[in-house]
């Protein structure tokens, strides 16, 4: 089985960060969104990956090849962003006849991946939501078999959202449906959707069963990203390294502090993730994500997302600062 991870999106909801950093590489609880996904799949026994890259794709490729040299990885370029259906259609030659596990690159799910992989049918990950109109939605019969899927329906007949996790056994039918939709210009919300290809497969008799994920973390926006960071910090039980004391500094767990950081005269935490080689002095930081190689001096930050190589001086309560930014708030 191969894993397909589409990571070609521009991440417009996380700008300015995604002007210079792919959304999948934004730090999260001491790791990155992409590394959490890959580690889950490697633990389930998958060793071959297909990444659909586009915007800033060279950074994705460099990161994966450096961090996971033991894996077999393929990188497929999507030059025009026309939806997940179009992105997946580009992987046909690489995948061949192998079964695939598709995991969207901006969503973290918790489930028994080994059980999903071993299932005798194609499987779609599901989660109940309050307002399903913003998601792909699955309708099930009494046996748990999926009878219909619809992308962002105006009048949903189910509150079971597709979480971005798909196990496909009938890959040839998948690619035939994807290509048919592209040839016939069948779009939903102005894009070629994977959901429409799945509905095509269902109409042609392919059996899909649903499985419910225990947790589903959306990392596509600043507020949900910070919430996910706090949850995962608690889950991973991360804190600062006790053998590296920081001068005149109070650490309030859970906190993740990268290597080579210089922190003094500060209060850090709770729910803070700091990248490598960052300098923080005379500052208070809580409920925030700070990138690598940044410098913070005399600032008070809460609910903030700070990119890498940022320099902040002064006082602020909530910021959304991209990479390579220099700010003086004094």
From TrEMBL:
The keyword Ribonucleoprotein does not apply. Gene3D superfamilies: Hexapeptide repeat proteins (2.160.10.10), Spore Coat Polysaccharide Biosynthesis Protein SpsA, Chain A (3.90.550.10). It comes from the Bacteria. Transmembrane segments: none annotated. Keywords: Transferase. GO terms for molecular function: transferase activity. The keyword Transferase applies. Pfam families: NTP_transferase. Coiled coil: none annotated. Residues 2-233 form the Nucleotidyl transferase domain. This is Glucose-1-phosphate thymidylyltransferase.
